[in-house]
Amino acid sequence: MNLVVNGQKREVACQTAFQIREQLGNQTDIVILNGFQLEEDCKVTEKDTVTIIRKGVMPKRDELESMMMARHTPSVHEKVKQGQVAIAGLGGLGSNIAIMLARIGVGQLLLVDFDIVEPSNLNRQSYYISHLGMPKTIALRKQIEEINPFIQVTTENTRVTAENVKELFSGYEIICEAFDKPEEKALLVNTVLEQLPDSKIVAASGMAGYDSSNLIRTVKPMKNLYICGDLTNEAIVGRGLMAPRVQLCASHQANMVLRILLGIEEV
Amino acid sequence: MKVNGTTIFLGEQQSLFDFLETNQYNLQLIAVERNGDIVPKATYKDIMLNDEDTLEIVNFVGGG
């Protein structure tokens, strides 16, 4: 029968996924059938997509892409790959959002931040000691290259102002607001909603401290605006920003971005 | 008038700017949508509110 194995159409005489692995790979290889990793053997039919992954080995470029595609199913992968997403601010929210969007294979990412990595960032942001002193845009780009080399990353080492929003973010279907200061959050949201009517903005508000995880949510208060967070817990003396809730909030933002890319606009 | 899903009594005629000031919103931290459209900050003083209006006001808190 005809099916797709590791990204290529093939004629195989096999009836099951493990038989294909036996014929083309090793017994320890991982088998993914239509995006799902198999623990037990399974019958295959025409038009199935089978991916055989050798454990612990760097595959060839095209093989790597077909493996990523296999994990997300081809139709999802294709839509996500077409995605163009901008991230404004690369702190606790933005750095973690960028890593997640890279892992799911968003095709084009714009990373915007003016700052360098400093020691106080390490408690919640996706940076390492080896990145200290480096512009956040560069430190993040290096990580993304190590996660998914197919992503086209553009960086802008600049501070976002009301004057440069249009120039920076024009053409991006989705913009993630990932700033720290509330004035900057409001400024970006207002400017995007006023000047870029074709873009959606996924913002964050309220994720400090260690209050219940379940208070963090996604809401859509306006036509092109999504807000993730508990909406109330600001960072203050005695209630700082900590990795778990900041990453929860970043995950809400990343998942909303994914949903929008897949054509789902509800939260 | 409806504000964030709750019906409120508007009373005397007032601008959006006056309404936000009276209700102690910090204008630096908010975004306002009126009847489905974003209201540019520069026009808050020009917009006169009426009973038919529906406002969505979001207020951002710090942290990220």
Write a compact overview of the structure shown:
The complex is a heterodimer of chains A (267) and B (64). With 267 residues, chain A is of the alpha/beta class. Chain A is built from eight helices and twelve strands.
Helix content of chain B: 10-25%
The computed structural class of chain B is alpha+beta
State the secondary-structure class of chain A. alpha/beta
Q: Strand share of the residues of chain B? A: 25-35%
Q: Please name the two chains that share the biggest interface, counting residues whose Cβ lies under 8 Å from a Cβ on the partner chain.
A: A-B, 36 and 19 residues
What is the topology, as strand order, of the major beta sheet of chain A? 8-7-6-9-10-12-11
| Strand/helix succession of chain B | EEHEEE
Using only C-alpha atoms, the radius of gyration of chain B works out to 12 Å
Write the CATH architecture name of chain B. Roll
What is the topology, as strand order, of the major beta sheet of chain B?
A: 2-1-5-3-4
**The CATH fourth-level homologous superfamily of the largest domain in chain A:** NAD(P)-binding Rossmann-like Domain
Strand content of chain A: 15-25%
Shape of chain B: globular
Tally of distinct domains of chain A:
2
What oligomeric arrangement do these chains adopt? heterodimer
CATH superfamily of chain B: Beta-grasp domain
What is the terminal separation of chain B in angstroms? 34 Å
Number of strands of chain B: 5
Q: What is the CATH architecture term of the largest domain in chain A?
A: 3-Layer(aba) Sandwich
Q: Could you name the key traits of this structure?
A:
A: 267 residues, alpha/beta, Ubiquitin-like (UB roll), Rossmann fold, 2 domains, seven-stranded mixed beta sheet, 8 helices, B: alpha+beta, five-stranded mixed beta sheet, 1 helix, 5 strands, 27% strand, globular
